[in-house]
Structures are given as structure tokens and as C-alpha cells.
Design goal:
By secondary structure, the protein is α/β, with parallel strands linked by helices. Helix content is 38%, strand content 16%. The strands form 5 sheets. An 8-stranded parallel barrel has the order 1-2-5-6-7-9-13-14, surrounded by 5 helices. Strands 3-4 form a two-stranded antiparallel sheet. Strands 8-10 form a two-stranded parallel sheet. Helix 1 runs parallel beside helix 3, helix 5 packs parallel to helix 6 and helix 10 packs parallel to helix 11.
Length: 447
């Protein structure tokens, strides 16, 4: 039995959904630098900037009581020292419209939308100057909305910093001659400092924080002990962040490993005291897949997209991600055993190239099957003692993927556009719309 106040809803980013690229004082963001031209770009999104009320009506019809979104940094600051009032006014109304519909707003303060000028001038979060700029912006945002917003997420999937691949989502390019692992650890440390300072300020305003990481469950490929060690190492990339959120310090393994490898970042005097301020009220996770670990091999990379090793016991989606509902249950149990903190699932879903049939319908039984099985395993974890308090689906309306691809759709609502042709962006309910509506109405009792 789920809590009566269990949160049901969805999650998006601003840059994948809003559009309005040249409106309201918005400037280019670092996420724009990650697009390759192979698919699309983030300039139009699904036009949420103009259509969010229409979308919120659909969420209200489904029964959402929570909605996670990002406040786009590149819409809030037109240059390093100038805050953009038009950006604040946009989110004033955006949040008010959610509240009118009985939907709790859960803003993410950083979801890869740093203004490009900060990347060009300071190399993004590799610089403590950018930490200072970000913290001051967050204080102004929290001041503006603390009376309307109770739960905040500061960084999206912060542990993605340690995944092998470019760091442009965090505005950073590794300088020539620098050890890439040291560079990653520096961005990790700087963003954890930023997180801790913003976390402290949010608490001063009487609000709550949901410390977030993405968790890719990693199984040893064999029963060889070295594969188990490799699996533990893979998992530590999430724990190093979650430990700060739960305990206020680096875990002993990861810190020792940085020292042993010679990859310690620059740590300023007083930084460890700042990390102590990073303890959050809840943990929140994104979960989509699992991988397998073999000693001496990478189990996950994130060059152009997340690439994982195939597990022979599990099916794969058309985009190469494992379908592993039991892995969600394992993850929830591991995290709760380790931290004993309430957990929210703030991203989960199934990406697919949905096609409309001859009757204009989208029969996405595969999505229903995926989500049903994950919710079932979530409920089993709760029965086993895990304090899980919410389930937010990723992209409840079709949005561009993180690589600006429109064919990787997650929504209960179809948006009529493709990679190159914007068409009319009409919203069309999929079969999963009514299914999720019933799940919410029964508070997860009937799946």
C-alpha cells in the first residue's frame, strides 16, 4: 500500500521542451553545444514556452499531483552580472499555473542550461567563479519562489560528471595536458560545493531538498571476485554524491582512490566544512537500466549517448538500454539500506519511436508493460521496508531526447513533430495516457 500523499507525475527539462529560443532574453546554453546536427537542436523543443497551459491541462486530467521541471539558467541571466526579469516572470506564471491545477512544482536548478558565455570565459563548473555565480542566482530564484515551492532539486544527475565522456553539459573542457580524471574530480568537487551552499540557503528559507543522482545498477559479469570489485567501483560513482547528500562528506573509498591515483582536485581551506552543509532531506534518483561489470573494462560510457554492456539475461530497448525492472527494486533496497532516507523516483520511462496507426492512434503497449513492471517492483521494495514516496515519469509528453532526437519518445502524449519538420506540434493522447491516469486514480493499486 502506497502512502496517501504519494507523488505521481512527470519530469522534463526546459531546454528539451520549452523552445522560445530567442524570446524573453534567453541566451545560448551549453546544452546547445552538445548537439551534433544528426537529429535536431533545442531551439524549438515542443513549444512549451507558449503551450504549457495546454500541457498542464493534460497533466491535470491524468491526475498528476507533482511535476518536475528545470529553471533555465540561460533564460535567467543575459550576461554575467545581469539578471533577466522576463525570465523570472515566465516562471512566475509557469509555477502559478501548476498550483492552480493542484500540481506541486518541483524545480531543478541546474539541468545542463548554463549560459555559453560562462563556458567560454571560465570553463564552466571547472571554475569556482562559476560556482559563485550559480549560487547567487539560485539564492535569487529561491527568494522568488520559496513561498510557492517546497521541494527543490539542485543538480540533475550530478554523478554523470564521473561517467566517461565529454563534460560539456557542465560547461567544462579538459585542458590539454591535464589528467581527465583529475578534471572530472574537480568538476565533481566544485558542483558539490555549489550544491552544499545552495542546500544550506534553501533550508534557511524553510524548504526541502531532494539530492539527486542517476543510478545504473551494475552486476558482476561473473562470480569472479574481481568482477564484484569492478561492480562496486561502478556503483561508487553514484555513492560519492549520495554520501554527501546523506552524510555531508566524501565516502572513504572514493577519497582514498583519488589520493592513490593522484587525481585529487583542488580543495580549498574550509571546503570540507561546506560539504557538511550538503545534507539533504530526501534522496531522488533517475533509473532506466542496468549494466554488467567485468574487471578492467568500462561498464558504461557516455560519449554520444549512454552505452552499456549487454546482459544476456535481459532484453534491450531499440536504443540499446536494458529493460530491468528488478534492478529498480534492488537499487531502492540498496540505497535505503545504506542511507535510511526517504527516496523519490524522479525519472523513469521507456523511449521508443512511436508510430501512429491508420486510425490516428498510438498503441504503446510496450510502454505500459515497461512502466507497469517497474511500478510493481517499486511497490515490492516498499513492502520490503523501503520508504519510497513518489514516482515521476520521464517526459510525460514527448520531448526531444538529451541528444536532440525526437524519435526517442517517452510520453503519454504524442507531439506531432519530428527531427526536421516541426509540423503543427499537436498533442495526441496515447493508449498509455488512460492507463497511467487509472494507475494514479487507484494510487498504484491497479496496474
Amino acid at each position: 500500500m502506497l502512502r496517501k500523499d504519494f507523488l505521481w507525475g512527470g519530469a522534463v527539462t526546459a531546454h528539451q521542451s520549452e523552445g522560445g529560443y530567442n524570446e524573453g532574453g534567453k541566451v545560448p546554453a551549453v546544452c546547445d553545444l552538445t548537439t551534433t546536427g544528426e537529429f535536431s537542436d533545442f531551439k524549438d523543443g515542443i513549444d512549451t514556452y507558449h503551450r504549457y497551459k495546454e500541457d498542464f491541462d493534460l497533466y491535470q486530467e491524468m491526475g498528476f499531483n507533482a511535476y518536475r521541471f528545470s529553471i533555465d539558467w540561460s533564460r535567467m541571466m543575459s550576461d554575467e552580472k545581469t539578471y533577466n526579469e522576463a525570465g523570472f516572470e515566465f516562471y512566475d506564471e509557469f509555477i502559478d499555473e501548476l498550483l492552480k491545477r493542484g500540481i506541486e512544482p518541483i524545480p531543478t536548478l541546474y539541468h545542463f542550461e548554463m549560459p555559453v558565455y560562462l563556458q567560454e570565459k571560465y570553463n564552466g563548473f571547472a571554475s569556482r567563479k562559476v560556482v559563485d555565480i550559480f549560487v547567487e542566482l539560485c539564492k535569487k530564484i529561491v527568494d522568488r519562489y520559496a513561498s510557492k515551492v517546497n521541494k527543490w532539486i539542485i543538480f540533475n544527475e550530478q554523478n554523470g560528471i564521473l561517467q566517461k565522456g565529454p563534460k560539456m553539459f557542465f560547461g567544462g573542457i579538459c585542458p590539454e595536458g591535464m589528467n581527465p580524471q583529475t578534471f572530472d574530480n574537480q568538476i565533481m568537487h566544485n558542483t558539490l560545493i555549489a550544491h552544499s551552499l545552495v542546500n544550506e540557503y534553501i533550508h534557511q528559507k524553510g524548504c526541502k531538498v531532494m539530492g539527486m543522482a542517476t543510478v545504473v545498477q551494475s552486476y558482476p559479469e561473473t562470480c569472479h571476485p574481481l568482477d564484484t570489485l569492478e561492480s562496486m567501483k561502478a556503483q561508487s560513482e553514484a555513492y560519492v554524491f549520495l554520501d554527501v547528500f546523506a552524510r555531508g562528506h566524501y565516502n572513504s573509498y572514493y577519497y582514498a582512490n583519488m589520493k592513490n591515483e593522484g587525481t585529487l582536485p583542488e580543495i580549498l581551506e574550509g571546503d570540507f566544512e561546506i560539504l557538511e552543509k550538503g545534507k539533504t532531506d530526501y534522496l531522488s534518483i533517475s533509473y532506466y537500466m542496468s549494466t554488467i561489470s567485468h574487471y578492467g573494462e568500462l561498464s558504461l560510457t557516455n560519449e554520444k549517448d549512454v552505452v552499456i554492456k549487454k546482459n544476456p539475461y535481459l532484453e534491450m530497448s531499440e536504443f540499446g538500454w536494458t529493460v530491468d525492472p528488478i534492478g529498480l527494486r534492488i537499487t531502492l533496497r540498496q540505497l535505503y539500506d545504506r542511507y535510511e532516507m526517504p527516496i523519490y523516483i524522479v525519472e523513469n520511462g521507456f523511449g521508443y519511436d512511436d508510430q501512429m496507426n491508420e486510425n490516428g492512434e498510438i498503441i504503446d503497449d510496450y510502454r505500459i508493460d515497461y512502466m507497469r513492471k517497474h511500478i510493481e517492483q517499486m511497490k515490492l521494495a516498499i513492502d520490503e521496508g523501503v520508504d519510497c514516496r513518489g514516482y515521476l515519469s520521464w517526459g510525460p509528453i514527448d520531448i526531444l531526447s538529451s541528444r536532440a532526437q525526437m524519435k526517442k519518445r517517452y510520453g503519454f502524449v504524442y507531439v506531432n513533430r519530428d527531427n526536421k519538420d516541426l509540423k503543427d506540434m499537436k498533442r495526441i493522447k496515447k493508449k498509455s495516457f488512460e492507463w497511467f491516469k487509472h494507475v494514479i486514480k487507484t494510487n498504484g493499486e491497479e496496474l
